[in-house]
Amino acid sequence: MRKNKPNSLYIHIPFCESICDYCDFTKLQYFRNFAEKYLSVLEKELSNPELNKDLKTIYVGGGTPTSLEDDLFLRLLKAIDPLSKKAIEYTFECNPESLTLSKIKMMKEYGVNRISIGVESTDDKVLKAINRHHTFSDVIKAVDLLRKNGIDNINLDLILGLPNVSEKMLEKDIKNILSLSPTHISCYSLTVNEHTVFSIKKISPPSEEFSYNAYKMINNILINNGYEHYEVSNWAKKGKRSEHNLTYWRNETYYGIGLGASGYEDNIRYRNTTNLNKYLNNKNIREEEIVTIKDLEEYQIMLNLRTDEGLDLAKFLNLFKYDLYKNKKEVIESYISSNYLYIENNVLKATFDGLLILDKIVIDLFR
Ligand code: SF4
Fold it and tell me: Is the CB of 6 under 6 A from ligand 1?
């Protein structure tokens, strides 16, 4: 039986102008002929009459959506348009060097109201060393251009743990980012995945000690500057949390369209093929995971605890007929006494220290 349709949509644009040394996303070098064919497939998928037309959030990520040339960028916006009429949050991911005035004007015209910019570092030498093709001054110009053209809900992304970046340099990064007053800041810890240039160069991810100290320093600075730490790696000004990403963390359903995109509909979590040839030839054989009640419980624990909304114990009991607190009392109380968890109004939440060891806590909470 068909359940409620998702209220959120993720669209993946896999093209990039150049490939960063650490990148493990589904991406490939931009070539116009591939991008044209790709858009034809997307247009077909986005016009599927089964899709919910009253979407609440839309997120266009990548890759680099702004790597598309203007005429193709416009085609993309037009294809999404019928689905975006009621969206309260409509985000595009951008790289500073390809965020041009013409693209900003197009996005504004089509209702895009949030931009996420991959800054990664504010040190030009570090950016060059990881094969990013922008400078911090490009970021300053991009933010200024966005604001002058009426888009002021801006997320800036940083990476924690890039090679040769000390805690002192990271502190400078955060202060540089703060000088631009974004509404939202994401800071993800570097992971080194197979087949990336970083892996070939045998670069190590940051140590636990470095990550802990760096996250603590970043958190202190951001809290003191009026940001709320609402998810492990995300901070926002009041009222500017990412509604789209909250869909994931609340364990709600969402469509995933495009190469390698993940989605969650009814009781199926899926990931589209990462093979461009197959995707372009309409052979999107996706990997599917049927979500059992037990999986649903585990996702609920794992995802809800990531944010300061926490895990509502009464709701959990009601949904799964399983009293998590009663059954895991010893584990929960032990984490509470070590200051990793706390309970507020019958909602289980992780402290700052708890967020940094969440994987372990979550495993201990599974049945
Ligand atoms: S721009 Fe983003 S998606 Fe593209 S290679 Fe760099 S990190 Fe990966």
Answer: no
